[in-house]
Amino acid sequence: MRETVITSELDLALVNALQLRPRAPWTDLAPALGVTASTLARRWERLTEEGLAWVYAAPGREFSRNRCTAFVLLRCRPGTRVALAERLSGFEEAVTIELTGPGSADLLLDVLAPDLPALTRFLTTRLEQLPDLVSVDCLFATSLSVEGSRWRLRALAPTQMTALGTAGAGAREPSPGLAPDGVDRALMDALVRDGRLGLAAL
């Protein structure tokens, strides 16, 4: 099995900079990181091609607050979990699919549904159609305190943080009561695949 890690200090700094300013142009990031924009673009292309780093849009706390979130543990017949994970990747409700280590489950899903009836349909009707599924356990999330996008690599020096305009900046609080429309959903769908898509491509 191939193991690859990010060893370059520049790569770590680049990933950290994109955690803070995920859609910033390379020309904005280059001065703070001390290299050219084309160097950053090349390094980012390599990191994404190797699956070492990526930028994508994820629902925030306010979006999740108005929906049903669940963590679903699946057990399947031996030798079928990779095929099952591939089938599940076509289900829009399964926002993440993880293969787990030895234990009481083979797959862990983060499931997001618009309401409880939709989540129930996913857990019953949709999952029941899958072959080789042995058992389903579900943990409902009642609230979201902190989510993974808040984690930071901490590879940037304070001067670099200042140059990026992010020194002391925290995540913005969501605006309450916003309901996404069709355009919002189309944007999220595109940005889930590539969070750095340019405005023209969007």
Write up what this structure looks like.
The mean pLDDT is 86. This protein starts with 8 loop residues before the first helix and ends in a 9-residue tail after the last helix. Helix 2 packs antiparallel against helix 7. The chain has helices at 9-20, 26-33, 37-49, 61-65, 81-88, 116-128, 158-164, 182-193, and strands at 68-76, 94-99, 107-113, 133-141. The chain has a four-stranded antiparallel β-sheet with strand order 2-3-1-4, covered by helices on one side. The longest helix is centred in the first third of the chain and has 13 residues, at 37-49. The protein contains eight helices and four strands. It is globular. 15% of the residues are buried. It has two domains: 9-57 and 172-193, Arc Repressor Mutant, subunit A, CATH 1.10.10; 61-141, Lrp/AsnC effector binding domain/regulation of amino acid metabolism (RAM) domain (Alpha-Beta Plaits, 2-Layer Sandwich). It has 202 residues and is an alpha+beta fold.
